[in-house]
């Protein structure tokens, strides 16, 4: 059995396979034109950049990304930002839309099928280990300790797990483990989640991260593909089968999460609802946020446009370009506008006498004069008309925009167009 001492890192013998085909329907109109992994996050990045950056920073140099739902935005982002892998250095980066190699009419039927249909491509690289990743979560993790645990434990599958309070575990797939973290049962969204031995107030929830030996994974996928009753899904089919018939081991996120000196606790977010997405972005405006995106030892790689610096202009009473407790990206011009606790992506224009508070503004938004926007998410390329007020009249906001129960409004260009009809 491989041991770390005296050998190259196990990550060099691994391939990361990112499942990035999901829509993310709970993000509503934000995913009308893009898959959830392609949604913007944090001022510069896309959500998928976190899983990809974790793989790269962990030392993995073979990566595949399976795409499906409205993939153009995602594919274009990866072509622009992740095109630096070099075959002559035994590196590879494959974008893998469903290409009907198994059947001329068959798209990916599930997460397991998204791997199964690309077995031939994976086999051509012959990695010893496969790390299956979800492409729609925000976190920093070194996959090397998980690989090492997989080898040391002799597991058939090692599953990344979050420790969450029992009352919060009902929305997850939950692992019932013994004292050695061997999984004895896997329960999907249980009404009464099992606790962790020695700490019954906490449960182990699946992160959708799986480590396999390649050959074992292929055997599982072949067996699953031959089962007409299977839904072709890792969480529903592959994992329960291995828990019952093989050796499944839980890997705790706390033992491989990456934290800078400024981060007090392990950070993992599913930003799959508008409220969660808004909150995670706004959190980054804090003095010491839970997620340190300024940590140079574990960078978040992404497509970096060549942009001019942000600019703040005008210094007259009530017309002063200013930003307090805010994150402002390159090519933004804050022209006599006031920002408070807001996050602006590239190329935003905020004009005189406008005020933004709790605003998450995606790239290339134009905000006209006198607009007053509070607790909003504004989609890419929207033009906000002069004098628009959002965040003061909840009933009016709900009629015009997508408003959550907590009062966050998503604004898209089609919604603005209807106002002007």
UniProtKB/TrEMBL annotation:
Q: Which UniProt keywords apply?
A: ATP-binding, Carbohydrate metabolism, Glycogen biosynthesis, Glycogen metabolism, Nucleotide-binding, Nucleotidyltransferase, Transferase
Write down the EC number. Answer: 2.7.7.27
Give, as in the UniProt entry, the pathway in which the protein acts.
Answer: Glycan biosynthesis; glycogen biosynthesis
- Residues crossing the lipid bilayer are none
Task: Decide whether keyword ATP-binding is in the record.
Answer: yes
The keyword Calcium belongs to this UniProt entry's keyword annotation:
no
Give me the gene this protein comes from: glgC
According to its UniProt record, which protein family does this protein belong to? Belongs to the bacterial/plant glucose-1-phosphate adenylyltransferase family.
Residues reported to bind alpha-D-glucose 1-phosphate: 108, 173, 188-189, 206
Q: Where is this site: Could play a key role in the communication between the regulatory and the substrate sites?
A: 68, 107
Give the UniProt record's GO annotations in the biological process aspect. Answer: glycogen biosynthetic process
This protein's assembly is summarised as: Homotetramer.
Q: Write down the species.
A: Martelella mediterranea
> What is this protein's function?
Involved in the biosynthesis of ADP-glucose, a building block required for the elongation reactions to produce glycogen. Catalyzes the reaction between ATP and alpha-D-glucose 1-phosphate (G1P) to produce pyrophosphate and ADP-Glc.
Boundaries of every Nucleotidyl transferase domain copy: 17-284
Catalysed reaction per UniProt? alpha-D-glucose 1-phosphate + ATP + H(+) = ADP-alpha-D-glucose + diphosphate
Q: Which InterPro entries match?
A: ADP-Glc_PPase (IPR011831), ADP_Glu_pyroP_CS (IPR005836), GlgC_bac (IPR023049), GlmU/GlgC-like_hexapep (IPR056818), NTP_transferase_dom (IPR005835), Nucleotide-diphossugar_trans (IPR029044), Trimer_LpxA-like_sf (IPR011004)
Give the protein's recorded name: Glucose-1-phosphate adenylyltransferase
């Amino acid at each position: 059995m491989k041991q770390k001492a005296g050998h190259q890192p196990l990550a060099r013998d691994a391939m990361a396979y990112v499942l990035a085909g999901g829509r993310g329907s709970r993000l509503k109109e934000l995913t009308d034109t893009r898959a959830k992994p392609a949604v913007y996050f944090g001022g510069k990045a896309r959500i998928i950049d976190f899983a990809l950056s974790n793989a790269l920073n962990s030392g993995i140099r073979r990566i595949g990304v399976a795409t499906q739902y409205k993939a153009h935005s995602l594919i274009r982002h990866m072509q622009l930002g992740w095109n630096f892998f070099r075959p002559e250095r035994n590196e590879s980066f494959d974008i893998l839309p469903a290409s009907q190699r198994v059947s001329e009419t068959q798209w990916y039927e599930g997460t397991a099928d998204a791997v199964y249909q690309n077995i031939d491509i994976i086999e051509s690289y012959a990695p010893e280990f496969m790390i299956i990743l979800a492409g729609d979560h925000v976190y920093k993790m070194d996959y090397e300790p998980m690989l090492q645990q997989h080898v040391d434990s002799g597991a058939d599958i090692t599953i990344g797990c979050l420790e969450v309070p029992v009352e919060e575990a009902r929305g997850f797939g939950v692992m019932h483990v013994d004292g050695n973290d061997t999984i004895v049962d896997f329960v999907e969204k249980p009404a009464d989640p099992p606790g962790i031995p020695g700490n019954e107030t906490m449960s182990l929830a699946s992160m959708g991260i799986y480590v396999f030996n390649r050959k074992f994974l292929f055997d599982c996928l072949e067996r699953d593909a031959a089962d007409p009753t299977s839904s072709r899904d890792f969480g529903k089919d592959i994992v329960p089968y291995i828990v019952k018939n093989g050796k499944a081991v839980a890997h705790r996120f706390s033992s491989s999460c990456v934290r800078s000196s400024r981060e007090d606790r392990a950070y993992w977010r599913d930003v799959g609802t508008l409220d969660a997405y808004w909150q995670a972005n706004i959190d980054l405006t804090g003095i010491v946020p839970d997620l340190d995106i300024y940590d140079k030892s574990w960078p978040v790689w992404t497509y970096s446009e060549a942009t001019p610096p942000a600019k703040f202009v005008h210094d007259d009473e009530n017309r002063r370009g200013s930003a307090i407790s805010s994150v402002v990206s390159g090519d933004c011009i804050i022209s006599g506008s006031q920002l408070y606790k807001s996050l602006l992506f590239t190329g935003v224009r905020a004009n005189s006498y406008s005020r933004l508070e709790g605003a998450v503004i995606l790239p290339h938004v134009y905000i006209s004069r006198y607009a007053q926007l509070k607790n909003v998410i504004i989609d890419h390329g929207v033009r906000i008309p002069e004098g628009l007020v959002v965040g003061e009249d909840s009933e009016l906001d709900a009629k015009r925009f997508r408003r959550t129960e907590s009062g966050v409004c998503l604004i898209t260009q089609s919604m603005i167009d209807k106002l002007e009809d």
